[in-house]
Amino acid sequence: MLKPLGDRLVIELVEQEEKTASGIVLPDSAKEKPQEGKVVAAGSGRVTDNGERVALEVKEGDNIIFSKYSGTEVKYEGKEYLVLRESDVLAVIG
Amino acid sequence: MLKPLGDRLVIELVEQEEKTASGIVLPDSAKEKPQEGKVVAAGSGRVTDNGERVALEVKEGDNIIFSKYSGTEVKYEGKEYLVLRESDVLAVIG
Amino acid sequence: MLKPLGDRLVIELVEQEEKTASGIVLPDSAKEKPQEGKVVAAGSGRVTDNGERVALEVKEGDNIIFSKYSGTEVKYEGKEYLVLRESDVLAVIG
Amino acid sequence: MLKPLGDRLVIELVEQEEKTASGIVLPDSAKEKPQEGKVVAAGSGRVTDNGERVALEVKEGDNIIFSKYSGTEVKYEGKEYLVLRESDVLAVIG
Amino acid sequence: MLKPLGDRLVIELVEQEEKTASGIVLPDSAKEKPQEGKVVAAGSGRVTDNGERVALEVKEGDNIIFSKYSGTEVKYEGKEYLVLRESDVLAVIG
Amino acid sequence: MLKPLGDRLVIELVEQEEKTASGIVLPDSAKEKPQEGKVVAAGSGRVTDNGERVALEVKEGDNIIFSKYSGTEVKYEGKEYLVLRESDVLAVIG
Amino acid sequence: MLKPLGDRLVIELVEQEEKTASGIVLPDSAKEKPQEGKVVAAGSGRVTDNGERVALEVKEGDNIIFSKYSGTEVKYEGKEYLVLRESDVLAVIG
């Protein structure tokens, strides 16, 4: 299992068609393309300059939209994941 | 439904003519063109370095003017939206 | 009506001659040209990292001098305005 | 009258000869040339991230040395002034 | 023994095959390649602007994934290590 | 007299030979050359984001080593001085 | 004697062979080469934005590894030293 640190999330990518089941269609021309993913693990939150840990708004199981070029791809036990920061998440689908 | 995080807003673009119903006309020559939109969803606010969450000034239903090149376009259930940060909002029309 | 957010101001530009009624003359050669304007609407102030809102020093009706290339032009109900941040205001004329 | 905001100062430039009355001589070769001026108006101080206003050290009537390329020139009622931030002041002559 | 300062970690690199024992496979094409390592020493944590020390989430013995180009290589008593900051750690394998 | 503001210092340059009386020799090849100087006036300290003034560690009369390209040269009553920030001081000779 | 300010350290360089007595071998190919040194003087610590002084973790007599291109070289009484910030120290050898 991958446990992300701080304000990081481990994301399972959702395959994207022209029009997905949930209705998200991403324009090809957009410079910063959004993508859909599912949160499989969430960090314990970032620590402010005040020394307090701020819990994440996103939680395991959430479907999210994020900017395409954010995060780092990793493979773990044969599956591809993306590790990104919560600040790269645009919106939760719900 | 799209639920934006932190200080982000989901905006429905308002079609713009030479002179819109609400009277906004945007100059073509302006480098950073403002645009009109309607807020369809607002985040829970940004968290300061002090660990406090600051509620957004903008709320669902507000008509706003924002800078053209800010935000990220997403399509959801066949409609186009823009996800942007409250700091990219220039003014509320009211 | 345009209601600016945070530390933003909506400014009505004051036409500038060689020497204006209020006595301001702006040098053509200055790289960052100052301009005169009248505040028609002021935001509720910026929020510090401490979570406190700091009231603006500038208020509706003030005549101000600001740097030319700051802010964003918008037209609203046939009139031109400038939306800028209080930090772009050089001085209040009074 | 020009009333500067925050940590800004309105400065009246002091004409500079090879050697001024107060004894300041500024080298031509210096990349960032210092200049002498007199403070004619001072802002109410900057507001820290903590929300507290810090009073300025410089006050009306002070003769100061500042870096040449800082600030913005404005003309008001036929006289030239410079608006600059207190952080651009190198030293007070006293 | 190497004792890292603040939020730094001393990492022992884990040799990477096409598919490692723990199942991590790193794509060659990825711009910012992740790597696997084992924490052999951890600092006492970073000090916030508030003057408080924030303990690290990562501890000695943890297997971690980090971005390839982060950190500095050092050799000590014939073995190679990497010194990196906790913020460069993407996830803990556990 | 020159009174520096905040965390600034007014420095009298110490002439440098191959080997000075105090034993400092500065390498010509060093990219950022250190220099020796004597503090003739010190500011009242910088103000933190918390609104507190932090007293300077350096005091009038101290001999210091600083980086060559920091600060601004000024002439006052026929003598050359350097105005620099305490953060540009490398060490006090004592 | 050289007394460094704030979070600075005065370092005596340790001559480096292919393999040193303490076992450190530094790779030639490493872009940011680490080096070994001995702390001969340590500052009183940096002051946070909160106005509190944070004591250094490194102390006089410590052997440290630091990044090669950090710091400034100075000669004092015929010996070469390096003045660097504690944040440039990678690890303490102990």
TrEMBL record, chains A, B, C, D, E, F, G:
**Which cellular component terms (GO) are annotated to the entry?**
cytoplasm
**Which CDD domains does the entry mention?**
cpn10 (cd00320)
- Tagged with keyword Transit peptide: no
Give an example GO molecular function. Answer: ATP binding
Cytoplasm: is it a keyword of this entry?
Answer: yes
The protein's matches in Gene3D superfamilies, at most eight in alphabetical order, are given as: GroES chaperonin
User: How is this protein named in the record?
Assistant: Co-chaperonin GroES
Q: What is the lineage of its organism?
A: Bacteria, Bacillati, Bacillota, Bacilli, Bacillales
